[in-house]
What does this fold into?
Amino acid sequence: MSTRPSTERKLLDAADELLFGRGVATTTVDELLALAGVSPATLYRAYGSKDGLLVAALQRRQSRWLEVWDDAVAAATGPAEALLSVFDALATFRAQPHGARWCAFLGSAAEYADPPAPLAAALRADTEHLRSRLRDLAGPLVDGDAARAARLADALLLVVSGELAMQLREPGSRTASARAVARAVLDAELSGAPA
Amino acid sequence: MSTRPSTERKLLDAADELLFGRGVATTTVDELLALAGVSPATLYRAYGSKDGLLVAALQRRQSRWLEVWDDAVAAATGPAEALLSVFDALATFRAQPHGARWCAFLGSAAEYADPPAPLAAALRADTEHLRSRLRDLAGPLVDGDAARAARLADALLLVVSGELAMQLREPGSRTASARAVARAVLDAELSGAPA
DNA sequence: GTCTATATGCTGATAGAC
DNA sequence: GTCTATCAGCATATAGAC
It folds into this structure.
């Protein structure tokens, strides 16, 4: 009794699987159409181009990621765990059906010499959301010291990005070691407070 | 009085600049030929294909990177600085003429659904060399404890990869913050020795 | 009206023939 | 070194089915 998926939905699902799972350039429009079971006219009417579909798929993916991260934060037992829960969210998100090979945003950006504006905007939004959310979560841990929170957030953003890039080097690698590195960085920030 | 560069050399230089600076898929064979000033026959005779040239360029790049890193290690003032000198090497290498947008190895791998064998091998070689070299440099800092050295090396590899991926998010970002994160990780490992 | 199926122009990459 | 055959992918047009 599932309702029939809309053609947009089918196209976005196909984009998730092919564009992010196998790469943008390597995936042809024909493959997308075949997987979605949709005719060319439908794609071009709804999204204008392959790139248009890519951007739409990134946007949907972004909101899904935020939900997963929100849940992970909500499940955390304290402020430090809330900050580190980004790694739990990463693992959860990766285990979901529409998993990307490493990171849909970084991966897409990597495939363009200089990315078209909407794509650059999507990556920037992802980066800025990560940074500001991490900063907010870091705040309570450093008594609201904005500079320290920002420094901590930048450090975690670096570790998160490293964890993603490691998926490219070694597809199976666990997020556990990234979490451990992040905790070491956190502990260092909380014990000392070096310049 | 410079000797005339060989056609192979010219092709490798062109590959460095275009394949790694702008991306593999976005660069056409014609652009490579035009920049190198050689004819198609030359490329296909010497390397067989665009991918063949790519792999050859990666191999040359790997040995150049090792030289830069060796120099940075040699210039370090002590064992801890030697371990962290990988970030100096990264900055130096990036400042050289044939700079990639972020990382030639990760970037190339990211552009293939599943990379052809020689390319996968090149990335694996890069990863393994990073890891083993970092492990060797970490050894003296942990009294030769192999497990701790390995853990430290893995952590630094993660940070290095993160620093590279951050270039994709924010092209101008400095290696300084990665170095600071790495130092925090190092300090944490050297003070406590948590499981 | 929305979608499918099919056919086609166009562009550009690859590889090889000359 | 030029030149060209082949091939693939993107985008669109047309006509018909639900």
